[in-house]
Amino acid sequence: MTAASVAGAQTWSAASYDKNARFVSDLAGDVLGWLDAQPRERILDLGCGDGVLTEHLAKNDASVVGVDSSEDFVAAARARGVDARIGDGEALAFDAEFDAVFSNAALHWMTKPEAVIDGVFRALKPGGRFVAEFGGHGNVAAIVTALRAVGQARGGDLRLANPWFFPTPAEYRTMLEARGLAVERIGLYPRPTPLPTGMAGWLSTFRAPFFDQFGKDREAAVSEVEALLGASLRDRSGNWTADYVRIRVHASKPAAA
């Protein structure tokens, strides 16, 4: 997550995230398997959030550093005993320091992917690996469509409906290889994701800037988005499922680099 402070920028609350989005770390088993962290490795957790996964990695006797742009997240991670630091994922300052760079559910917030990849390459030791999972092409497509429909009807800023980077595997492979990383495997994985606090909880956590632009009509706009999505993402019992699609990648820095 970048450290940029601009109008409409996403902000984070560790408490709200824990309540509405704990599934993000709970569903990270596959990407953790791809990482396969080993004892005594030095690992960078890029976009570490509140440090739940960073703490998990450290329990495997790895030396782990977490980086995130959110002060609230970094404070929560430090409270877990994590070596967490404020940092901009699009301007990493590490130099050949890590055996692995790991990232879960963060890279889609970094809309200068080439800068991120350049920083990852620099941060890795020769022979090091980059393992990440984040939103891929088609991620939350129904939600974005509903947001855009409500935004257009209300004369809002449609850029706030879709602030993310959701690449195809081919697109991301090209970026990685152009910057010197060898792609070992990459794929797109549909993952319908139950929302424990419903669509309203998801929207308040991940798209607050979109709704904030409507001022006193904020809650009415939320209800309109929910109404558009109900037929496709809510079951007969009222349970909501987000239309997640994840891209997962394992790439490596050449040993001679």
From TrEMBL:
Residue ranges annotated for the Methyltransferase type domain, each copy included: 44-131
Keyword annotations: Methyltransferase, S-adenosyl-L-methionine, Transferase
CDD domains recorded: AdoMet_MTases (cd02440)
Gene3D superfamilies in UniProt: Vaccinia Virus protein VP39
Lineage: superkingdom: Bacteria
Keyword rRNA-binding attributed: no
Pfam families: Methyltransf_11 (PF08241)
GO molecular function: S-adenosylmethionine-dependent methyltransferase activity
GO biological process, one term: methylation
Protein name: Methyltransferase type 11
Organism: Agaricicola taiwanensis
